[in-house]
């Protein structure tokens, strides 16, 4: 085989489909989020980032950056080992305690990312519990799917956000068989929210464990930022709550919160937990500071929701189609990979507005979109510039508009 030409041909096929991924090279500027410097061939330009998952701008919060500076000075750069072999730092333990408290669980377990936490926790539970069958929502994130696949456990896919279909599928199984129901609260690409209470009713009816990914909700919803399950008073009914420290908390890392025995079981058996260097202590300390701040402060969450409503309202007035959903994620639908990339490039080149195009396989073909994530640090001026630019390109490309309510 001619390996080089094989790789080249495969990449060309992706280019021809208009979904070849080009990463914007940016330098975020602490203190000036959402503004950043973009590196281009012949220098730099200034951009406003409209597609960050640092939803609340906690990545530049002085409490967070100060905690990280302090702990680098105190502990140095890296953890120095896996959790098992000299890498468990005091700051990891503090963070796990903070997370257990956030979710009202007995314990929590840290991983190097949210991806790894899903992969390792689901993979370990499903693989090791004898005869376990996994019931996975049809739109679950790649990290959950990979974990479930890796486990080689039997897996049934239930209709997205349908407790009725979940109930039907569970009813076909032997009542004595161990069952694990995996789903998300806020789905990252459509921004819709699961009917958690109804799903838990079904889980309880069939004695199934429940595993919820609250990655796009922790920090953002609930009186202390515990997620949608906290807001709805459901945390104690969920077996495993999984989250990230890399999105609303603005740092990095992933975790599960659950009973002491379940966390201990995953700690003991999960390869993706055991055989990898622990997060740097400064990362743990930054995440801990972020969680603590958001437990006490609602200001960021309130301003976040207000900014989201402002952008939605302006899109509606201009007739620019976006998925209506009850979350902070605003998918502006384009429905074509080439157009989506063209619009994204045009916004960047002409207006310094950075919205990454979202294409297959992240979303199904034909539903390509611009995923806009307003944050508390986007100003009225930032919003006006975004909306004027979008309206302009919508006219230039003769894209369909919605009827504008009078
Ligand atoms: C981003 C994401 C993850 C992975 O979290 P990271 O901390 O970024 O690795 C898991 N689940 C969902 C739904 C996500 O969108």
Automatic annotation (TrEMBL):
Assigned keywords, A-Z: Acyltransferase, Heme biosynthesis, Pyridoxal phosphate, Transferase
One MF term in the entry's GO annotations: pyridoxal phosphate binding
Enzyme Commission number(s) from the entry: 2.3.1.37
Cofactors, names only: pyridoxal 5'-phosphate
UniProt catalytic activity: succinyl-CoA + glycine + H(+) = 5-aminolevulinate + CO2 + CoA
EC top class, as a word: transferase
UniProt KW Cytoplasm keyword: no
Pfam families cross-referenced by the UniProt entry: Aminotran_1_2
Domain Aminotransferase class I/classII large: 46-390
Superkingdom, taxonomy of origin: Bacteria
InterPro entries: 4pyrrol_synth_NH2levulA_synth (IPR010961), Aminotrans_II_pyridoxalP_BS (IPR001917), Aminotransferase_I/II_large (IPR004839), AON_synthase_class-II (IPR050087), PyrdxlP-dep_Trfase (IPR015424), PyrdxlP-dep_Trfase_major (IPR015421), PyrdxlP-dep_Trfase_small (IPR015422)
Pathway(s) where this gene product acts: Porphyrin-containing compound metabolism; protoporphyrin-IX biosynthesis; 5-aminolevulinate from glycine: step 1/1
Keyword Transferase: yes
GO biological process: protoporphyrinogen IX biosynthetic process
Subunit architecture: Homodimer.
Family of this protein: Belongs to the class-II pyridoxal-phosphate-dependent aminotransferase family.
Name of the protein this chain belongs to: 5-aminolevulinate synthase
Taxonomic source organism: Alterisphingorhabdus coralli
Lineage: Bacteria, Pseudomonadati, Pseudomonadota, Alphaproteobacteria, Sphingomonadales
Name of the encoding gene: hemA
